[in-house]
Amino acid sequence: MVVPTLLLCLISSSQPSSTAFLFKTRVAMSLTELDDQTVRSMSIGAVFSDFGGKINSLDFHRKDDLLITASEDDSVRLFDIATAKILKTTYHKKHGADRICFTHHPSSVICSSRYNLDSNAESLRYLSMYDNRCLRYFKGHKERVVSLCMSPINDSFMSGSLDHTVRIWDLRVNACQGILRLRGRPTVAYDQQGLVFAVAMEGGAIKLFDSRSYDKGPFDTFLVGGDMAEVCDIKFSNDGKSMLLTTTNNNVYVLDAYAGEKRCGFSLEPSPNTTIEATFTPDGQYVVSGSGDGTLHAWNINMRTEVSSWNSHIGVATCLKWAPRRVMFVAASSVLTFWIPNDDSKSIAAPASADAQAQSEQFTQ
Ligand SMILES: *[C@@H]1O[C@H](CO)[C@@H](O)[C@H](O)[C@H]1NC(C)=O
Ligand SMILES: *[C@@H]1O[C@H](CO)[C@@H](O)[C@H](O)[C@H]1NC(C)=O
User: Fold this and answer.
1) Nearest ligand to the C-alpha atom of residue 156
2) Name one GO cellular component term (predicted).
């Protein structure tokens, strides 16, 4: 598993922290399944504390080792997650940066606006990070976009807004391709095949649509048993079998994505005026979530047990996502942290963990 060239480069590197980071994330990169011990060993490997405000949303590229963030300081920042380095920062003073997601291209993203949200607002922008250009504006929403996702298979994307609509778009076309009107705060997500999408609405109802014929209405509706709170985030597991819901009253549920049955549910500490994000691991076996008391938690879904809880070191983590193909997750408040396995039995990992420890202590003081 240990690659000698990486060892060499670690020893000779003038930047021990990022090279060691690369080494540590590579160690377990070929994983197909995680185990409790690896999940428990996760700890902070890199810290970015120069944001001028809260991080509103973040997204990983599906194939490349890239992360994009949108922050209250109007910045959009692109990171290389293999080396824990920032690649590019752009500022968006006119529109702000609220929800963000990658397109299929590694340097193009869709970003929703925070400012000037009148009836003719440029509420969504298709941005090129490569040359800092806006490739297209998408008009239609009359309020803030609270949920945004890109189809995993083609140029379609979806946005859910506080104006009580979900809009379906094509990256290549200015005009909206479809509208769903509904009650409450709409939250949207595609499944991993892009053939089905889920929309959460008022009363905790989850409706499933066929992407090719959503105009015919939902083909299935689930109610999250007993919980009428609004769902503020939906994610499908990679195998498509499970759905993860986070509600505005701080509950996290894992549902069977076919039958809608609740597989497990967890309660978090309340987080006034802010929503919390939870994430599946890529193997769909664990859920990791933030909490209102500034901790992070990991649960084993099959065993329905908590396997770990950590001090986030950054207060309430409102953004949390596990990287698609790595043993790594990111948690963010107004500080962005990269979490990686901290396996002290491998002496090579020691310099990096010492370094990360020093960094995490620095900003909690
Ligand atoms: C994307 O794929 C879905 C499902 O096959 C299809 O309904 C939709 O029209 C496609 N969108 C684009 C922009 O090609
Ligand atoms: C939450 O928002 C309400 C109303 O906007 C405000 O009165 C309250 O102080 C806020 N609470 C926190 C913890 O920020």
Assistant:
1) 1
2) Set1C/COMPASS complex
